[in-house]
Design goal:
The complex is a heterodimer of chains A (169) and B (583).
Chain A lengths: L1 E2 L5 E2 L12 H8 L3 H5 L11 H5 L8 E6 L6 E4 L6 H12 L17 E7 L4 E3 L5 H7 E8 L10 H11 L1
Parallel strand pairs in A: 3-7
Antiparallel strand pairs in A: 1-2, 3-4, 5-6, 5-7
Chain B lengths: L2 H7 L3 H9 L4 H7 L4 H10 L2 E4 L7 H7 L5 E5 L19 H9 L6 E5 L5 H10 L5 E5 L2 E4 H10 L5 E5 L2 E3 L18 E3 L9 H10 L5 E3 L6 H10 L5 E3 L2 E2 L6 H11 L6 E3 L3 E2 L8 H4 L4 E3 L8 H8 L7 E5 L3 H11 L5 E5 L13 H10 L5 E6 L4 H10 L5 E6 L14 H10 L5 E3 L6 H10 L5 E5 L5 H10 L5 E5 L5 H5 L10 E5 L5 H10 L3 E6 L6 H6 L9 E6 L12 E3 L1
Helix pairs in contact in B: 2-4, 6-7, 7-8, 9-10, 10-11, 13-14, 14-15, 15-16, 16-17, 17-18, 18-19
The chains are: A alpha+beta (169), B alpha/beta (583).
């Protein structure tokens, strides 16, 4: 098992998330790790009422930049407008006029054209879909829709893609 | 039969009823009804106000049978942790069956107050049509309705005095609900629509305000600009309670000057809120009324700089209730401590919800407040850090707390000075504050803090725990010690079956228990449900995949993600969605 900079124990496995039946349980068990709690990525904490969150300082809006490989300019999407990954993916598909961004999130998909990733608060590039939606929304700084073809020939599996990216940064 | 009782029986029922009228508290009236059969009967038929803290503890039919002449009803639905998205959507808490039953039985309903319930437009329409004397609707943290439902209320409730919408999720259809108040409506005393997102017809509002001469409380929404506020204040200088909508304008404009003059005339305003959008340079407009304010809520006011806030607060010497954002800073709280000697309740909310780490408030601000405000009895404090020393000082300064809620932004942060758990600090609070009825703890906490709570918090009715404790002992200390405990809510803490099952009868003395991400297993919950038929033990799954998901986790040894149990007279509820399983 590797420890990344934030102290979280993460295990990079072959295959995309969702490939194992106990994937969901694993995520929740990891967050018993107190280090994760420290990173303020816990659902429902601080205990501020949902109404107040939506109506808070920045009006509750969570605009993040989205880049799509090959597109000449970036777009912005408001994460607070969506209740989950499927809605977000649909919004991205509308924004860029394409289809199939969500395929990477499904089980056993290895040949999907697009890979949606995001940069989190720690500056790490993460594959979309691993953590509960709210946790993602609270830690996402920006989004990128990668084209698998552009990924410098580093192979078809998630961990390699991500490794390739951190080298780029 | 004792002498007293025989004497009392010579009094006609009207006399008893008249005597009972002086009893306003629900507890007193409940006690009275237990004295003897005739008192029970008189009390039953004279009871006008009923409070039901958990809508699933009874049902509408039993309510109506028990109190056939009720006029005023308070109902609460979802568990408190629903506020923090821990309860899936569609869990329940529907008001419709209650309204339907009361309508059928021709209850003369005049007042309805709901909290955390699902209120459909259908319910509102039925409400509006069924109760000719309906006077007051207060909805707090509810959802499920649109402005069409409000239009029905406005159109049909001829004697409506109060429409108070607090922090509800309303689907704003941008219809003209406000215009639905007929010209003949002059009875409004209180109107609060601050939580609505859409536009309202300003002219209709101005006319409404002009003809309701008894209007005392008005809270506008964000969509209404300063110009409208100005016109309204000219029409209604008698207001006690004002919620501004948007409060941003060019401070040099004529409109703003007119607003300043209008405000000066409002000698009766005691409570001020809103500022849903605010230009700090506009705040001086309210200085003239600050001296008499007893309540001020700036917690939805984004981007006021700390110095602008403190300038405002320096004018507010009589404040008793203050809700602000942590942008005020420790220094600003020092100003509050020096100025607001009448302060009783303080709430400091976090401005930065995503933990980027901008300076929030710390233990310093809290200590300053405790030292400067001798009447302080209720606090909700979101802070970056805390220390035991500070809490011990606060406990010494303020033995009169009835509500003490502390939320560290990092839920398990230790004492900032010593790196120790915060057990001793909270221990000091419960030991000193003998009247404490509500407590929320946070920060790094071991079983020790619960030992203190069990030992000292004799009046405690509600306790909220998150990421705390080491073992079942912690929860046991609380269950065994806090005799008056009514609501216990626990998340992400290592309490399990031993604690859950040690005193099952305790739960019948409580309203409810919530446990999520703890160590209780399905098997233990089943045991509890089996032994205690007058409890509903609900296992709540994530609202995905429906019934299939619930069935998939059939193993008794599996931990239960979310459990909510509550006492009830009416068995498992019939409206539970498929992700809720009542054992």
């Amino acid at each position: 098992m590797e420890k990344n900079g934030s102290g979280l124990e993460t295990e990079l496995r072959l295959g995309l998330p969702g490939a194992e039946k106990n994937e969901k349980k694993r995520v929740f068990e990891e967050f018993e790790d107190k280090a994760a709690v420290h990173k303020n990525q816990v659902v429902g904490w601080p205990p501020v009422a949902a109404f107040r969150r939506k109506n808070s300082l920045n009006g509750g809006k969570m605009y993040v930049k989205v880049s799509m490989d090959g597109a000449p300019f970036l777009r912005k999407v408001d994460l607070s407008m969506h209740k989950g990954y499927s809605e977000l993916v649909r919004a991205l598909e509308d924004l860029f006029g394409c289809f199939g961004i969500g395929e990477a999130l499904k089980e056993d998909e290895e040949n999907n054209e697009f890979v949606p990733i995001y940069e989190d608060k720690d500056g790490d590039w993460m594959l979309l879909g691993d953590v509960p939606w709210e946790m993602f929304a609270n830690s996402c700084k920006r989004l990128r829709v990668m084209k698998r073809a552009e990924a410098n020939g580093v192979g078809l599996h998630a961990k390699d893609l991500l490794k390739g990216l951190s080298k780029e940064e | 039969m004792c002498l007293f009782q025989s004497v009392m029986n010579y009094f006609p029922e009207e006399v008893l009823e008249h005597v009972f009228d002086f009893l306003t508290s629900h507890r007193d009236r409940n006690a009275v009804s237990l004295v003897c059969k005739s008192w029970y009967s008189v009390e039953k038929f004279s009871r006008k106000k009923v409070f039901i803290g958990n809508c699933y503890a009874v049902n509408p039919e039993r309510l109506i049978a028990r109190f056939p002449r009720l006029r005023s009803l308070i109902l609460k639905g979802k568990p408190h942790f629903a506020d923090f998205n821990l309860v899936p959507h569609d869990w329940g808490g529907h008001v419709y069956p209650w309204i339907e039953a009361m309508a059928k039985s021709r209850i003369n309903l005049e007042e309805l107050r709901l909290k955390r319930m699902v209120v459909s437009d259908e319910s509102l329409k039925l409400l509006a049509k069924s109760f000719p004397n309906f006077k007051s609707l207060v909805l707090v943290s509810c959802e499920g309705f649109t402005t069409n439902g409000l239009a029905a209320i406005a159109s049909n409730c001829k004697f409506l005095r109060e429409l108070d919408l607090q922090e509800n999720e309303v689907d704003d259809r941008k219809g003209h609900w406000l215009s639905c108040f007929p010209e003949s409506c002059t009875s409004l005393v209180s109107l609060n629509f601050a939580c609505l997102k859409g536009e309202v017809n300003a002219a209709a509002l101005e006319r409404l305000v002009a003809r309701c001469r008894n209007l005392r409380s008005l809270r506008l929404n964000h969509a209404l600009p300063l110009e409208v506020l100005q016109k309204i204040l000219v029409q209604a200088p008698q207001l006690n309670d004002l919620g501004t909508g948007s409060f941003t304008h060019d401070p040099n404009s004529e409109t703003f000057i007119k607003l300043k003059n209008a405000v000066k005339n409002c000698h009766s305003i005691r409570s001020l809120s809103g500022f849903l959008d605010v230009n700090g340079r506009c705040l001086p407009a309210v200085y003239p009324i600050c001296a008499n304010l007893t309540a001020l809520n700036l917690s939805y006011a984004p981007g006021i700089f700390s110095n602008e806030l403190t300038k405002l607060i320096r004018h507010c010497k009589k404040i008793e209730r203050l809700w602000i954002l942590d942008t005020i800073g420790d220094k600003g709280l020092g100003v509050v401590a020096n100025t607001c000697k009448e302060l009783q309740e303080l709430r400091v909310f976090p401005s930065d919800l995503y933990g980027v780490g901008n300076a929030a408030v710390t233990e310093e601000g809290l200590v300053a407040i405790s030292a400067g405000c001798p009447k302080l009895n209720s606090i909700l404090y979101f802070c970056q850090q805390m220390t035991n020393a500070a809490l011990i000082t606060v406990a010494k300064n303020c033995p009169n707390f009835i509500r003490f809620r502390l939320c560290t932004l990092n839920p398990i942060v230790p004492d900032a000075a010593t790196n120790q758990p915060l057990d001793e600090g909270f221990g000091a609070i419960v030991q000193s504050c003998k009247g404490l009825t509500r407590l929320s703890v946070s920060g790094q906490l071991t079983d020790q803090v619960f030992l203190y709570i069990g030992m000292y918090a004799e009046q405690l009715e509600m306790l909220s725990i998150a990421f705390a404790g080491d073992s079942d002992k912690g929860m046991l200390y609380v269950l065994n010690g806090c005799k008056k405990l009514k609501k216990l809510e626990i998340r992400d803490s290592p309490f399990g079956n031993m604690a859950l099952l040690s005193d099952m009868g305790k739960y019948e003395t409580m309203r409810s228990l919530w446990m999520s991400s703890c160590q209780v297993t399905l098997g233990a919950c089943k045991t509890l449900a089996e032994k205690m038929p007058r409890l509903n033990v609900e296992i709540i799954s994530e609202n995905e995949g429906g019934a299939g998901e619930v069935e998939a986790r059939l193993d008794d040894r599996d931990r239960v993600e979310k459990m909510y149990l509550y006492r009830t007279l009416v068995g498992p509820r019939t409206d539970a969605p498929d992700f809720v399983r009542t054992l």
